Amino acid sequence: MPELRALVVVLGDQLDLHASAFDGFDAGVDAVWMAEVVEESIHVWSSKPRTAMFLAAMRHFALALRAAGRPLHYTRLEASGGNGALGARLQTDIERLQPTRLVMTAPGDWRVLQAIKAVAEANGLPLDVREDRHFFITVREFAAHAKGRKSLRMEYFYRAQRKRHGVLMQGDQPIGDQWNFDADNRKAFGAAGPGAVPPRAAFEPDAVTREVIALVETRFARHPGRLESFAWPVTRAQALQSLQGFVEQRLPLFGRYQDAMWPGDPWLFHSHLSAALNLKLLNPREVVAAAVAAWQSGHAPLASVEGFVRQILGWREYVRGIYWTQMPGYLERNALDARENLPEWYWTGATDMACLRDALVQTLTHGYANHIQRLMVTGLYALMLGVQPKQVHAWYLAVYVDAVEWVELPNTLGMSQFADGGMMGSKPYVATGKYIDRMSPHCKDCRYDPAQRSGELACPFTTLYWDFLMRHEAMLAGNPRMALQVKNVARMTGAQKLAVHERAAAIRRGEVGVEQHA
Ligand SMILES: Cc1cc2nc3c(=O)[nH]c(=O)nc-3n(C[C@H](O)[C@H](O)[C@H](O)COP(=O)(O)OP(=O)(O)OC[C@H]3O[C@@H](n4cnc5c(N)ncnc54)[C@H](O)[C@@H]3O)c2cc1C
Ligand code: SF4
Prior knowledge:
With 518 residues, the protein is mainly alpha-helical. It has helices at 39-42, 48-67, 86-97, 110-122, 139-146, 154-165, 207-219, 236-249, 251-254, 274-278, 284-296, 302-326, 354-366, 371-385, 389-399, 405-416, 433-439, 460-471, 473-477, 483-490, 494-508, and strands at 6-9, 31-35, 72-75, 101-105, 127-130, 169-170, 173-174. Helices cover 47% and strands 5% of the residues. Strand 4 (101-105), helix 4 (110-122) and strand 5 (127-130) form a beta-alpha-beta unit. The radius of gyration is 24 Å and the shape is globular.
């Protein structure tokens, strides 16, 4: 067997033929290594849509590698036998293939990087970890931005990114003379609803994807979620088609309705591009460029395009910077000392709260929920209930097709659960059921009343909101952005507080909110 120079390790979220790991690749002496391992589906209870997304995209990428003439050592899940862990599989293959070094693009997960480093070290192999070009800035550049700053708010980072990359800029000033168009964006649909929303880009599973679906249905039969409507883009060509469809049909109204919700429709005017971006089927630069071009051609208004660019150039890059500069300690944060368990029905959708049921059923059916459902429905409820952040994290990492730890963890622990004590957000995102009532018609079909905070009909969100303020009154009183909300607690009588406390205790005991079967 001729000597193998470099074994290029490609992970399930690194599916780009032009990734830095392939720089200098020589098919005569180098080879690619990929493996489907059980560990990735069980270290959290990965949903069927999420596992299918990764496996289908990996198998299609393997075909693209072979078509490009790159030698590939690929282990399928069926063949991985006892080697259920990534490190163990790599170890076996190193013994067989005897490469002189390992090369890879920087992985998204801290845990995976440690596993691969350990294998390289154990075998005395040099490991060349290269910069991931799928981000606008490097982790080192983020760290330099963060250094010495008292506050690490996204807004300042985002403005610096716009300037640095010249996106929607006129000299040193933002186009439209505003950094933020929130006043034009974030509207609710009103009683008439969203009207005719363009259908989402859906891709009929081909033979490769159908085989994956059958495998997931048998191998992970007891895992949450469903696969009947699996239609995600799993190749680069499909991802590009999704991008084009979004820009042409949805982007013009993206900004206006980015915070709106409508029962039975999770897709609305969102892009549904997160999985394609995170698996590297799309590059964020081409996504931002396509959105900016739509504004330049007059197809989409500035407010919408800015709102969208903010998500990709701002939030996405920002959370990655937070993750890599804060790990591994970040995973352990629990600033609010939250100790409850995640309700069982998060895994089934069996709750009688209309807003939560809708978000959960969509999540389990499609592996998708839009941002506002994640932040202000499922996340908000877990925060106010006081669920242990690690359990909330394990749920979010398991259920969504776009879930990769570098992006999921800061969104969950930091933005949604305030478990980092305010590193990402200046205050916890807490609200009563009235917020959900304003942004959606869910409450009209719900047995609870968002205006009531205690009693049989009280909306659990509203009860838990007041309970949250009462439980964390001392800590929140020191936060100027919460002062007004906390003052309202002081106005409550002892009897009112007790009523909230008792109702919240019943919710925690599982006596409220669980679907009742006739
Ligand atoms: C608790 C919680 C957990 C989340 N977990 C994930 C996750 O595992 N993976 C993930 O990609 N996103 C996650 N998000 C962010 C966001 O909800 C999803 O990116 C978005 O809903 C995906 O749908 P979309 O592609 O239609 O997004 P759009 O609404 O169309 O937004 C456009 C793009 O912007 C990016 N984006 C938007 N918001 C964020 C954000 N807060 N952080 C990072 N990127 C963002 C995404 O790439 C997205 O595709 C999470 C948010 C919360 C509150
Ligand atoms: S009343 Fe409360 S639980 Fe019911 S839909 Fe409204 S916010 Fe959700």
